[in-house]
Amino acid sequence: MSQVHIRHLSQDDAQVISQAFQDQGWHKPSELYERYWEEQQNGKRVTAIAEMDGQFAGYVNVIWTSDYPSFQEQDIPEINDFNVLMKFQRQGVGSKLMDYAESVVRERSDVVGIGVGVYADYGKAQVLYAHRGYIPDGRGLYRYDHYLQPGEETIIDDDVVLYLTKKLGTI
To answer: Which pTM does this prediction carry?
Structure first.
């Protein structure tokens, strides 16, 4: 049985991660992970890397101060940019990353937040979050800088997000 190992992002990971996503047809530039590493060094985020049998398999971020206004107002840390390579999905990698992210948040907060896209490409994530006990925050869909209003027309893409929270228990 394959082992999943979770560790923090290192400065040398950026190109490996970028190439792994490029190999499956996703554009994720190495500069993104260089920025994550810098922010991790500055205490703004924790980026957890999953490896399976020594190969990069996925990652997740914990952002201590979310850009989402409701989480900011309530001082709710956000799990963000959660990705598992397609070839490693359905093997427990995502669950291990989420377990780790929640344990990191639990050290500072008894509530964690996460945003999820609303179209079919996000279906697996929607189901995973529901199974893990995440519930909608009750504020509706959010895009860019505002909550979508009844009758408002928009394009459903990666920028339309439903935010969820989970009570982690006492810290």
So the answer is: 0.90
Strands 111-117 and 78-84: parallel
Domains and CATH numbers, the chain: 4-167 (3.40.630.30)
CA distance 47 to 7: 8
**pLDDT at 31 (0 to 100):** 92
Contacts of 111 (CB under 8 A, 6+ apart): 74, 76, 165, 166, 167, 168
Which has the closest alpha carbon to 16: 46, 50, 42, 63? Answer: 50
Answer yes or no: are the C-beta atoms of 111 and 76 closer than 8 Å: yes
Q: What is the pLDDT of residue 27?
A: 87
Q: Which residue has the tokens 């959660």?
A: 82
Phi first, then psi: what are they for 92, rounded to 5°?
90, 0
Low-confidence ranges of the chain (pLDDT < 70): 1, 170-171
DSSP state of 3: P
SS (H, E, C) 15-62: HHHHHHHHHCCCCCCHHHHHHHHHHHHCCCEEEEEEEECCEEEEEEEE
Of 84, 159, 75, the C-alpha closest to 112 is: 75
For the chain, helix, strand, coil in percent to 5 are 35, 30, 35
